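Dear colleagues,

As part of the handover before I leave the project, I'm documenting each prediction I ran so the next person doesn't have to rerun anything. This entry is a single chain, and its sequence is reproduced below.
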Amino acid sequence: MCGIVAYVGPKQAYPILINGLKRLEYRGYDSSGIALLNTDLNVYKAKGKVSELEELIKDADLCGTIGIAHTRWATHGEPNQVNAHPHYSQSKELALIHNGIIENYASLRKVLESRGYTFESSTDTEVLTNLIEDIKINENVDLFEAVRIALDQVIGAYAIVVISRNDPDTLIAARKGSPLVIGIGKDDYYVASDATPIVEYTKNVVYLDDEEVALIRRNNDLRIKTIRNHEKTPYVQQLEMNLSTLEKGGFEHFMLKEIYEQPHSIRDSMRGRLHTELGTVTLGGIIDYEQKLITANRIIIVACGTSWHAGLVGEYLFEDLARIPVEVEYASEFRYRNPVIYEKDIVIAISQSGETADTLAAIELAKSKGATILGICNVVGSSIARATHAGSYTHAGPEIGVASTKAFTAQVTLLTLMALRIAQLKGTISKTRFIQILHALEAIPGKVEETLKTSSVVIKIARQFKDVRNFLYLGRGYNFPVALEGALKLKEISYIHAEGYPAAEMKHGPIALIDKEMPVVFIATNKGTYDKVVSNIQEVKARKGIIIAIVTQGDTIVKGMADYVIEIPETEEMLVPLLATIPLQKLSYHIAVMRGCNVDQPRNLAKSVTVE
């Protein structure tokens, strides 16, 4: 949530900062602001999108070679110009930008008010800014030390960058529970909440760890301390990201581009791991933990949102192929439920960004109980990648659209590879069946390309139902998580109420909603419980519900019953989610566009949920 970008060096800071905010706008777009230091420390803020900030300050003096900038997703205080970042300290010597939540801000604010401080905003960030100033003045320390001491008094999550009117060569950055990366250029430094604003300037980066504070000085080496005052040696890594992946590439929206990237992202997630000619699956990231997976009493999958839906597919995969009991948990509930965790449990944490706050907290809880933690995420160097014992990257590439698409199919691909590998090692799958599935999986990217050609029928359906108020999505077995994910996509970006259910559960409540105004989407492919799904379709049809069906090419039974049909290629039952999800993503996209919604930046949502 929220985006941070900062710069110090010989170049003019404003173009770098405003371009960085545009790249980070998918992380938050309630308001934005910039602080630039030239003859004075000037802060400019605006409610709304970054474009509104640009318009506000188009005639201002924007010179300066050091500055900080922020795009906000509101936590404390409504989205408006006053609550937007950066926030001045009371003397206006300091300005600060912040991602995260300071949980004890109310008590800190009372203390500061007793010392004569007043506050313009209702944010926790302004409290932190004044706390740093108070410590700097009363303890007579430099800014680096004041930040370190202040953060030792803070409870909560943060990524911050601080700038001082009296020091035109210095930025102070720090993090705990919210990501922050420092780019190292030839003569300059860049700071951001993820690598997207940095990649066009440098490939050399340092990822700050929790409770680390960085002193970033013009023409000086980067210096890092912990808030406990221990010096750390910066570890420089190389970015594996191309600038072209951050552009729309001729598509109207990032979401549409990312839907069409799925043949490549799925293939990239299998590359070097799937070896059909050898009859093997190799996952180097977890190779040292394969024996623990083989002997695990159970697997617990923790995730949120779309990643949770991928985890549900993973539950079917691991139980079906590897015969290991699986529980899929919402990370946000798992962390507060006092769950029973054993040392022989394997916990798999799934997150697109690798920064999801609830999932990180679930990881720490499971680690404290002695469980082995494996991660599946998309961002190299992310917090989950560092917090887990081992894991695998999805290689989906940057996902800018807030509603996840290619990350979901990449996660399902990786879970499939993992389940197949453990099944092979355990001997719970025959060699013939194993090879059969490998060949089917290898063919999936081509079948996704074929599925993407369903645009004309999807657009026709979208046009027909763009103004309805409710949708119901139904599926069984492997297709139940697909129903959940299809409903989530629609509600996320079109603001139409939608629910996903196991098809058999329709009779236990949702059937009361069905009438001639209710579109019902069935994932009705010709595998597994096909006959049962046909019966469920008949139940809806008897109540005059409108049936939209995802079917296997060549289907005649459901095709004769449904009002609208989208055909997908035939594949193994366990691989159907990789195909059936595609037309549901496109349906949500086209309905949202027709309704005039902001597809890439839906209201109230942010890409990386780094707060509770």
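Residues 537 and 547 are 7 Å apart (CA to CA). The longest helix spans residues 406-426.

All the best with the project,
I.
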